[in-house]
């Protein structure tokens, strides 16, 4: 008898191919996580096409509590949130796990491009997927308790290979466009979403480092550290957002030379490959959802924080984003960026 597995089926090509691959080895039950914006039709049609049981679960309340409310608070506090990294450990995988408990399934799968393997000490290790599509950054808040049950069938594939497989399998989503980055903001206009949710900060002043007024901004929630487009301010050089001050409702602009930092202070680490950081460790670091990594050293701080010392300065480490630490293709852990410094 095949072991039971719960698969998060979104209706996109990644989860569709995952379902087709997994049914060879598992008794797959497909679950659509409903956030109230539709999309379940494609998922149900795919499950029917593949002859797999289908469930739909409403997660709107959990998404609001753990992700949407935090997203709004962070932007209004002058930070730049990372909703997917919060959703995975707090909403998505727990919701799939609850369905698993109901049907007696031990395993949970999604179409993420990453891998999970067992380490020599029995810990589960989160590893990078193939370089072009690696999603380990957004999964770096997963815990050992979750990783022990997770299967990522696409960890060894590139996206182009997955689309080719979907076409070979005759899946109607083979050429369906990739989903939006923030699922609960389908048009991608997060500032308008915040305005509709309200209240949001009023317009205020753009200032330079000396406090001189350079122009008017639309509200601090329209901007993020390092932004250089859509500012509408002219001057002797191109301007970039250098800092946000919610208390005084100002956005400081600079020529960008002050955005480089080689020290990043982080909080609330999630260690995956070890229990805790008890001394300096050489790693590579990702400071945003891209494939760019920088070598450096992480050191423990009091109260559980992490001090990240980069060998080469990085541009605009942004409060509210994640610093993710790697050794080779293994995710050591991650921590939330609080502020950056130039040594």
Automatic annotation (TrEMBL):
Annotated site location: Interaction with tRNA: 112, 321
Residues annotated as binding ATP: 8-15, 33, 111
Domain tRNA-specific 2-thiouridylase MnmA-like central stretches: 200-254
NCBIfam families assigned to the protein according to its UniProt record, in alphabetical order: PRK00143.1, trmU
Protein name stated in the entry: tRNA-specific 2-thiouridylase MnmA
UniProt-listed GO biological process terms: tRNA wobble position uridine thiolation
Enzyme Commission number(s) of this protein: 2.8.1.13
Record bears the keyword Lipid biosynthesis: no
Segments forming domain tRNA-specific 2-thiouridylase MnmA-like C-terminal: 264-337
Keywords linked to the UniProt accession: ATP-binding, Cytoplasm, Disulfide bond, Nucleotide-binding, RNA-binding, Transferase, tRNA processing, tRNA-binding
Keyword Nucleotide-binding assigned: yes
One Gene Ontology cellular component annotation held by this UniProt entry: cytoplasm
Active site: 87, 183
Taxonomic lineage: Bacteria, Bacillati, Bacillota, Clostridia, Eubacteriales
Task of the protein: Catalyzes the 2-thiolation of uridine at the wobble position (U34) of tRNA, leading to the formation of s(2)U34.
Catalytic activity field: S-sulfanyl-L-cysteinyl-[protein] + uridine(34) in tRNA + AH2 + ATP = 2-thiouridine(34) in tRNA + L-cysteinyl-[protein] + A + AMP + diphosphate + H(+)
Family according to the record: Belongs to the MnmA/TRMU family.
Compartments reported by the entry: Cytoplasm
GO MF terms, alphabetically ordered: ATP binding; tRNA binding; tRNA-uridine 2-sulfurtransferase activity
PANTHER family hit by this protein: MITOCHONDRIAL TRNA-SPECIFIC 2-THIOURIDYLASE 1, TRNA 5-METHYLAMINOMETHYL-2-THIOURIDYLATE -METHYLTRANSFERASE
């Amino acid at each position: 008898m095949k072991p039971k597995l719960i698969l998060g089926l979104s209706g996109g090509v990644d989860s569709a191919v995952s379902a087709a691959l997994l049914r060879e080895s598992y008794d797959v039950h497909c679950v659509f996580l409903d956030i109230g914006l539709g999309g379940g039709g494609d998922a149900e049609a795919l499950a029917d096409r593949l002859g797999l049981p289908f469930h739909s679960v409403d997660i709107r309340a959990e998404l609001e509590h753990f992700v949407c409310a935090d997203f709004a608070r962070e932007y209004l506090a002058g930070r730049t949130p990372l909703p997917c990294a919060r959703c995975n450990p707090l909403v998505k995988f727990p919701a799939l796990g609850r369905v698993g408990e109901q049907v007696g399934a031990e395993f949970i799968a999604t179409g993420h491009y990453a891998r999970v393997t067992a380490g020599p000490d029995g810990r589960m290790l989160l590893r990078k997927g193939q370089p072009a599509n690696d999603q380990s950054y957004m999964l770096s808040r997963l815990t050992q308790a979750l990783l022990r049950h997770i299967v990522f069938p696409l960890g060894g594939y590139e996206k182009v290979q997955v689309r080719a497989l979907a076409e070979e399998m005759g899946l109607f989503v083979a050429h369906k466009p990739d989903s939006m980055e923030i699922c609960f903001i389908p048009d991608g206009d997060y500032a308008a979403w915040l305005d509709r949710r309200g209240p949001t900060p009023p317009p205020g002043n753009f200032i330079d480092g000396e406090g001189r007024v350079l122009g008017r901004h639309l509200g601090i929630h329209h901007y993020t550290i390092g932004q250089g487009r859509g500012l509408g301010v002219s001057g002797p050089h191109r301007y970039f957002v250098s800092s946000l001050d919610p208390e005084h409702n100002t956005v400081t602009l600079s020529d960008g030379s002050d955005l480089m930092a080689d020290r990043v202070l982080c909080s609330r680490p999630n260690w995956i490959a070890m229990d805790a950081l008890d001394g300096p460790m050489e790693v590579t670091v990702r400071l945003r959802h891209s494939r760019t990594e920088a070598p450096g050293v992480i050191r423990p701080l009091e109260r559980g924080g992490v001090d990240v010392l980069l060998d080469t300065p990085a541009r605009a480490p942004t409060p509210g984003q994640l610093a993710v630490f790697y050794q080779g293709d293994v995710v050591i852990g991650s921590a939330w960026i609080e502020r950056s410094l130039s040594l």
